[in-house]
Amino acid sequence: MAAMASKLNALAIVLVAAATLVHLSTAQTRHVVGDATGWTIPSGGASTYDAWAANQTFTLGDTLVFNFTNGQHDVAKVKKADFDACNTGNVIFTITDGPASVNLNETGEQFYICTFGNHCSLGQKLAINVSRRAASSSPSPQPAAPPTSAAAPAIAPAPSGGSVTYTVGDKTGWVIPSSASSYQTWASGKSFKVGDVLVFNFSKNQHNVAEVTKAKYDSCDTTSPLAIYNDPPVRVTLNKSGEHYFICAVQGHCSAGQKLAINVTTVGGGGNNGATPPPPPSIATSPSSVAASPNSPPSTVNPSSPSPTGVASSPPPQNSDAASLGFAGLFATVLWIPAALLY
């Protein structure tokens, strides 16, 4: 009897693990906008993207992937009024490098357009509605040991793997600094890694955040940024390693020292700067985004953000639930284990 009880306990733990795998396989979905058509001027007009969106279910935490040719299109998140009027002068954030990934980090209606020429009026526009993922109605399983170790990251970031949120400038925020080297001094004592988040606190309509190339950073050139965020607080997720450059694109602010250059590594990092994170943004960070919260994105950015939620540098991913297929095989393997335990 003792041996049978031991096997049943092992079976219960395996089934809990299997349920967790099923949850993870459906936790997030990557939606490739327009599927094989990509993000372009559609031959069928605006109804093309409306029809595509009607067959999708967008939930908090999902990602939109826009596949387009650099220099011919872009992705801009806008408000409904600007979406309806195809107004490109008041965007929340813009991503210029494709393929572009936008994290859906807020619920409700979201609107995206291409700002090139008359592309929006020709139908290159997308409206979606993001819902909150339904909670499971079944009671939470209670295995003996795993919850203790799983709960630890909620108390403090893991020394080598947890992401860290950095408030740029700490209490000073993102402003014209008293010294041109202020933000580099702030960054010099920190080790940034992929997955960390930068939070820019500033007064709306007085400042913004633009991610730019090194050449534009050095010359304070505010034209054609990689991404730009206008609604504070802006949360930018550092979704790739290497050097990142940020400036305020309001005239004269960058040359006065409102600029930040950091280097992001794939490992290491850590140590919160002690600042209390601001309230959740209305958009994605970023790129990453964008977004950006993104307010982003990327956001909103962040967006929704981007990077925004950010700009993806890898080849265009497959659409929607492709990632779930890998979990199906793993799930079948897990279910085989309890059968072996019972015999």
UniProtKB/TrEMBL annotation:
SUPFAM superfamilies: Cupredoxins. Residues 147-156, 283-311 have a biased composition (Low complexity). Keywords: Copper, Disulfide bond, Electron transport, Glycoprotein, Metal-binding, Signal, Transport. GO terms for cellular component: endomembrane system; plasma membrane. PROSITE patterns: PHYTOCYANIN. GO terms for molecular function: electron transfer activity; metal ion binding. It holds the Pfam family Cu_bind_like. Residues 133-156, 271-320 are annotated as: Disordered. It is found in: Endomembrane system. Residues 1-27 form the signal peptide. CDD domains: Stellacyanin. It comes from the Eukaryota. InterPro entries: Cupredoxin (IPR008972), Phytocyanin-like (IPR039391), Phytocyanin_dom (IPR003245). Residues 29-132, 164-266 form the Phytocyanin domain. The keyword Electron transport applies. May act as a carbohydrate transporter. Belongs to the early nodulin-like (ENODL) family. This is Blue copper protein-like.
